[in-house]
Design goal:
This protein has 19 helices and 12 strands. The chain is an alpha/beta fold. The chain is globular, with a radius of gyration of 22 Å.
């Protein structure tokens, strides 16, 4: 694994090599380490590779020592993942353009990494109306209280309101930067970024020190969409980065919801456009929204493949085990103070769905666990 992550880093340093090409390498050569030693003839088998491009790759490749590059890179960027790492977010593994390198700061939550905790992206204009701000604050805080992680881009306007409202109620939030994780943009969000690091996570595909660049933000938006099970567009004019995020989310087969507004409200013309393309309208009642988001099909979890991450889910600070029947005790041991999906409880215990559901109901009646939207459970 250490060797393979060195080659993800090395290939990322080759000009003209991006996420799509790296996926082609994986399909053709199985590993990026093997692709690194591929001959010009072998590289010629990759679609879209001409002679001139191959010669340039071979020349640049000859000047890089992947293992030495990794050692030097870690000195300035100690915290980053590649798709070869077990903690690389599972939802990003499923998109066609996963970031070759994903830098992070903050608190890593294994359930988010596995895609167990439901994540919702909230995006919109940098110049929202009072209506847009108010509903963003309301929806973000309600979702956070209900166990959802809020994903956004820390931009001015809707992003800022979404992060702040989530943090104020003690929720988890992920901010995706279009610059290095140690650079805050806009500057006025510096204190907000510090709060996110303390209570959530900041991620970026750009190394430390990278300054904001308008070309980075469309790329950043695909990560917001990729990390989210659903995207909520609160307010967006016809030309808005939020529409890029929504369109990418649609390509990634994510649900897209929009906040309804007046037909003559220019700040929401982009939202109206999304509705004509099939986006769902955020319902009037929050209970209905929670029901719709909770109805998203749970992700299939391969317990064996993710055993390393699953071990991190154990809560080390639990009180002593109450006196329970053996089956109830076994199921109770697999639940922590963080929400966990019903399907994962079934897979980790090896019990039938009927046995687990019946036992969870008994644990609820005993006041030991609580059921959350999306068939998730947590200890009281």
């Amino acid at each position: 694994m250490i060797e393979e992550r060195a080659y993800w880093l090395a290939w990322a340093k080759i000009s003209g090599i991006g996420p799509i090409t790296l996926q082609k390498f994986k399909q053709q050569f199985d590993t990026l380490a093997r692709a690194w030693t591929a001959t010009s003839t072998e590289l010629d088998q990759i679609s879209g590779f001409g002679r001139q491009k191959i010669e340039k790759i071979v020349e640049e490749r000859s000047r890089i020592n992947p293992e030495e590059l990794l050692k030097q890179h870690i000195k300035k960027n100690p915290n980053f993942w590649t798709p070869a790492d077990p903690n690389y977010p599972r939802l990003l593994q499923e998109i066609p353009t996963p970031p070759p390198l994903l830098y992070y700061r903050g608190i890593v939550d294994p359930q988010e990494i596995l895609g167990i905790t439901p994540t919702v992206g909230i995006v919109g204009t940098r110049n929202p109306s009072e209506y847009g701000r108010r509903w963003t604050q309301k929806i973000s805080s309600i979702l956070a209280k209900s166990g959802f992680t809020i994903v956004s881009g820390l931009a001015a306007g809707i992003d800022t309101e979404a992060h702040r409202a989530c943090l104020e109620v003690g929720g988890r939030t992920i901010a995706v930067f279009g610059n290095g994780v140690n650079v805050v943009y806009p500057r006025e969000n510096k204190s907000l970024a510090e709060q996110v690091v303390k209570q959530g996570l900041v991620v970026s595909e750009y190394p430390a020190g990278t300054q904001p660049n308008y070309k980075h933000f469309p790329q950043r938006n695909r990560i917001i969409a990729g990390l989210s099970r659903a995207i909520l567009v609160m307010e967006a004019p016809q030309r808005s980065g939020a529409l890029i995020t929504a369109n990418i989310a649609n390509e990634f087969c994510r649900d897209v919801y929009v906040l309804p507004a007046r037909l003559d409200d220019q700040k929401s013309h982009g939202c109206l456009q999304l509705i004509t393309k099939g986006a769902e309208v955020i319902p009037i009642t929050m209970d209905r929204l929670l029901e719709m988001l909770g109805a998203m099909p749970p992700l299939e979890i391969d317990v064996g493949a993710y055993s390393e991450q699953l071990s991190l889910l154990e809560d080390k600070n639990q009180t002593s085990m109450p006196d329970l029947e053996p089956m109830l005790a076994e199921i109770f041991q697999h639940i922590s103070t963080k929400p966990i999906a019903l399907d994962l409880i079934i897979q980790t215990t090896g019990l039938s769905s009927g046995q687990v559901s019946s036992s969870l109901l008994q644990l609820e009646l005993l006041g030991l666990v609580t059921q959350l939207p999306g068939m998730r459970y947590q200890k009281n």
